[in-house]
Each structure stands twice: as C-alpha cells, then as structure tokens.
Recover the amino acids of this structure.
C-alpha cells in the first residue's frame, strides 16, 4: 500500500472516530433548567394584576404556566389577573429542555387588603400605591384596631408613618376622592423583649454646678467618654440613680431600645427628677412649689435609622413657659419681687474655668466660700460670677473637660425661685404648669410628657409617630441663697405605655 492509500485509510478512520464521538455526545442529556427570581408566596389585591418574570439558568426550550390545574401561558413571563373575589391560587411554572423538566410552585393569595407586617414600638413607613401618583389630597385613616395605643401620622403627600404598642391586625384606608386602597397591617411579636426604661446614654455634659463631679463621681483621669459611660451606668434600666445637669444649659442625651409611640390623648413618657413640694410655705393658697428645677425637653425619632440622634432630628417639647411665663400661677408674685421673669428663646451662656478653688479669706456671704468663683457671660450683654457655697467643696467645673470655657445654647426660662420668708431663709421653687423634667414629683401626672407637645425650631406644631431619643437640659439660671443654683437632676426614664400607665394629656 502506497503512502497515499495509507493516508486515505487513516483519514477515513479519523472521520469515523469523530462521527462516533459526536453521536455519543448528542445522546447525553442537557443540564436541567433552574427557575429563580420568584417568591414562594404572593399577595395580590382583588381585581389587580401582577407580572411574574422568572430568571432561568441553563437553556430552556419552553416555559409553561399552569394556574389551578389549567394551562394559561407558554412564555417567558406571565401576568396574573386577580379575580373579584378573595381566594388562594396555585401556580406551577414548568421549564423544559432536552430530556429535562423543572418546576416551581407559587401560591398566590388574593384579598381586599394590601398586606404589611411590622413589630410593636417600631415606625412603619407607608407609601400610597401608584394609582395615587400626583394626588395631593390623600387621606390616611385607621378603620379598625385591636388597641387604642397606636399612631398614624401623615408624612409627605404620598406617605404616612404608623406605629403601635400592641400586637394584632390593624385595618387602614388611604383615599383620594373615589380612589381607595385598604391596608391590613399585622403586628407580630418583637424578636426580643423591649425595656420600658432608658437603654443608653449618648452624651453628657453638665454646666458648672454644686453637684458636678459628684453625681456621677469624677475620678482623676476620667475622660468625656468615661463620664458618659458613668452617666449611663446610673440611668440605664429600672434601678436608676440620679445624675446632675449642673447649672443652666447642662445636658444629657439618652435613648430607648424601641420607639415610644405617640398615642393621641395620652402622655407618653416621663423622666424622673427629685422635685418635691414645700411643707411649710408661708404664702397662703400658693400654687405647687418646693424644689422644682425644670429641665427643658427635646425629642427625636430615628428617621434615618442609624441608631443615634442626629442634630437635624430634634424637636422641642413646648413646655408651658417656653415662650413666656405670664400664664404661670406664680408669675405675678415673681414680678412683684423684682425677679427676672424674662424668657429667652435663643439664649447662650459661656462659663469660664475658675481661677482658684481656694476659699476667700473673709467671705462677705455666709453661704459662699468663694464669691467670684466661675465667671459667666451671656448673649444678652450680661455677665457675672457663680459663687461656691459652703456645702460643696469639690470643683463645680466639669474636671474631665480640658477647655477653659464652656458655651451652652437653648431656652432660658423665667426665674421660678421665690424667697417667701422675708429673711432669706425660705426659698420656694415653683413648678411650671407642664412640659418639663424635675418640675413635679415623679408620681404626679404633670411629670408625664406628651410627644404631641413637640414643635419645630420655628415654633410650629409637628405630628411625630413616636420618639427614640430624649435630650434634657437645665432651663433655669438662678441662685437661690443658701440652696445654691437651680440644677436639674434626672433619674429613671419610663415608657408609660409599656408600663401600662395611663395619664390623660392636656391641650395647651
């Protein structure tokens, strides 16, 4: 056999081998299609439609849709049209290729409500459906509720905010003229038990005062972060203790582990203080007073859900004296005593570190060991000194602060401490009517705060669904003889709804 014939035989054998391999490969089954991109369950409103478009891995020759046992489509997507009546529908999607069938089963429930889920003491944002686009007269309503401890607050034109204390099913309606959607919100148990008490302290900076560095105790070397942690140790939980905010402007920022719901018609939370009534006030028929050192209250809810209060989220609780004290029952007496009853909305005060802690050699005042102790100046052109009294020898300036000056901003309330004996021995610090911390005894209804008293920085009333954070600062700048400066003290914080405490509100 010559070389040419050998080559032809070799080539023929090679072609037969290739042909044989190709035949075997063609007989191998393909990889089965994989159906993805679909949920196992859907909820669709009656008379509404829903388009289903799965993603298919691997080659597919045919995609068949079977609804309630009836073949309804052979396509890569399917539009389900909900009938007029509520019910449950089984949809089977089958994907074919050579030698393979894959399927996925989907259950579709049709009903008359848009179904949503949430948890107690959580803010749920509701958004109107597309059919309300460009409508500016939307109305949100609660139709039925298993509890009265809820809040529905309108957001912008297309949204609302819902929160509730109790589990159960809440039916809502959003409407604009003849357009209506109904919503069914199922509130399930929270994943973990929620505490009715303060859960965290974010910041703490008292202004100079006679209990500063003692409540809580400062130890040499403590930093700002350490003192915030110490304040948290005193305030977190049910068994809380007192801390001081010092003089005017001193503050603390705290938070709860849940949203305190703003329930209409009720006071929602309170922060304990150490206010008490006078036992022997010589003034007959005097209004309530004794040791009332009101702290101004700010509130915020975690709008951006970052777990901390941001400066643009704060709202002011409009206490009875935040704009003027003229309606307070003690105001006329205070005016007659030539007290400073002015209210400053945008007040600032700067305190300077004391030059000395050494007592004066010959004090002019029996109550003061250092007369010109801590220099201060405000944005109203006033200045002076805070005294150091004979009852508290430690430094009144927060020792963990390195700055030589501290500036605080906020509302300065009218002076409420009136000397009633005529001899300088009996000071009565009268209560404002409502809206403050450390202003009434803790068991008094007026120690409760209604979130509906919140206003924005322009004084406009706001409708908040609830709050996550509270800031309290001392609102009084007044020296009261031997008692020393008015200094707000705070203790345990309480969500009144979780505790089952019902206190009716007032409408200022």
């Amino acid at each position: 056999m010559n070389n040419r014939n050998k080559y032809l035989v070799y080539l023929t054998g090679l072609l037969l081998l290739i042909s044989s391999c190709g035949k075997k490969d063609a007989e191998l089954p393909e990889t089965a299609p994989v159906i993805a991109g679909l949920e196992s369950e859907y909820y669709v409103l009656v008379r509404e439609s829903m388009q289903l478009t799965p993603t298919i891995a691997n080659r597919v020759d045919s995609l068949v849709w079977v609804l309630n046992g009836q073949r309804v489509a052979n396509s890569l997507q399917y539009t389900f049209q909900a009938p007029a009546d509520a019910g449950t529908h089984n949809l089977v999607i089958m994907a074919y290729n050579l030698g393979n069938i894959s399927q996925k089963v989907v259950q579709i429930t049709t009903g008359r409500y848009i179904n949503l889920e949430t948890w107690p003491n959580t803010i749920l944002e509701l958004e109107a459906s597309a059919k309300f686009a460009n409508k500016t007269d939307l109305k949100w309503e609660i139709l039925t509720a298993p509890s009265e401890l809820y809040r529905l607050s309108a957001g912008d034109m297309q949204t609302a905010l819902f929160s509730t204390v109790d589990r159960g099913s809440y039916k809502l309606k959003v409407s604009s003229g003849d357009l209506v959607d109904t919503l069914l919100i199922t509130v399930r148990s929270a994943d973990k038990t929620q505490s009715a008490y303060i859960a965290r302290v974010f910041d703490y900076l008292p202004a100079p005062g006679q209990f500063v560095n003692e409540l809580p105790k400062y130890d040499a070397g403590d930093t700002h972060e350490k003192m915030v942690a110490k304040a948290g140790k005193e305030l977190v939980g049910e068994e809380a203790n007192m801390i001081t905010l010092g003089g005017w402007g001193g503050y603390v920022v705290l938070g709860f582990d849940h949203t305190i719901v703003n329930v209409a018609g009720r006071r929602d939370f309170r922060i304990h203080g150490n206010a008490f009534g006078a036992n022997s006030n010589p003034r007959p028929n005097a209004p309530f007073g004794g040791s009332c050192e009101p702290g101004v209250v700010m509130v915020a809810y975690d709008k951006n859900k970052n777990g901390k209060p941001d400066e643009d989220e704060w709202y002011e609780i409009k206490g009875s004296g935040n704009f003027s004290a003229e309606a307070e029952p003690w105001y006329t007496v205070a005016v007659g005593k030539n007290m400073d009853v002015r209210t400053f909305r945008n007040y600032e005060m700067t305190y300077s570190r004391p030059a000395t802690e050494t007592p004066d050699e010959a004090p002019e005042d029996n109550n003061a060991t250092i007369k010109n102790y801590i220099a201060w100046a405000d944005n109203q052109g006033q200045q002076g000194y805070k005294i150091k009294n004979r009852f508290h020898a430690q430094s009144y300036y927060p020792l963990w602060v390195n700055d030589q000056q501290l500036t605080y901003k906020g509302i300065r309330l009218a002076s409420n401490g009136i000397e009633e004996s005529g001899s300088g021995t009996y000071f009565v610090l009268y209560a404002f009517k409502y809206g403050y911390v450390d202003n009434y005894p803790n068991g008094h209804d007026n120690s409760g705060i209604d979130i509906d008293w919140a206003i924005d920085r322009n004084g406009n009333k706001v409708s908040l669904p609830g709050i996550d954070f509270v800031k309290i600062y001392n609102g009084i700048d007044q020296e009261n003889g031997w008692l020393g400066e008015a200094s707000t003290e705070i203790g345990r914080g309480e969500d009144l709804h979780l505790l089952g405490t019902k206190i009716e509100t007032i409408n200022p």
